Amino acid sequence: MRKIFLSVILCAMAFVAKAQVESIDIKGSFRSDFGLGVGLTADLGNNFELSPSMNFYFWDCGTHIDFEGDFHYNIDLGKKFTFYPIVGFVICHTNLKDGHVCHYHPHLHAHEDPEHYYDGHTDFGVDIGCGIKYDFSRKCAGFIDLKYQWVNKDYDHNYDDTFFSLGVKLAI
């Protein structure tokens, strides 16, 4: 588990080191629950951006973390607006408290698979969506992302959800 997280962080750092980091992103994600996220936006050239982020969801039955690596293609709409389609990957890690059943995430019941139920799950998926950004100034912008997230479970369940994020980009 830790090797996977370390590998993802190292890959993201390699991409960001090659790219020009433009901003630090702070966002709130709204789905069937609320999450807080932080990330970076890096310019890859030719209107392409890389936007790695971590989103934290604190549930009464445990915690959930999304590690996302999204690519954007910026389309200038004029008057300080930019539209961008989103495509990317996601790594989801959910850790439930012992003995809890969580209605936020479709996990197996403890008696069906106790090893995975109590130790947490790490799953991989895809983000597809779009977003719009408004530049308040050269140093600050607001954005809204709408994404469909499909996560393939290692058992017979899939976790998919449509959600939106609202946040600010602070230029570095």
Characterise the protein shown here.
This protein is mainly beta. The chain has helices spanning 2-18, 114-119; strands spanning 20-30, 34-45, 48-59, 62-73, 75-78, 81-96, 121-135, 140-152, 158-171. It is globular and about 50 Å long. It starts with a helix and ends with a strand.
Structure summary:
The protein has helices at residues 2-18, 114-119; strands at residues 20-30, 34-45, 48-59, 62-73, 75-78, 81-96, 121-135, 140-152, 158-171. The chain has 172 residues and is mainly beta.
Search tags:
single chain, 172 residues, mainly beta, eight-stranded antiparallel β-barrel, 2 helices, 13% helix, 63% strand, globular
Q: In terms of per-residue confidence, which ranges show pLDDT below 50 for 5 or more consecutive residues?
A: none
What is the multimeric organization of the chains shown?
single chain
> Biggest sheet, open or closed, and with what strands and sense?
8 strands, antiparallel, barrel
Q: Order of strands across the widest beta sheet?
A: 1-2-3-4-6-7-8-9
Give the overall shape, derived from the CA principal axes.
Answer: globular
Report the end-to-end length measured between terminal Cα atoms. Answer: 32 Å
Quickly count the helices.
2
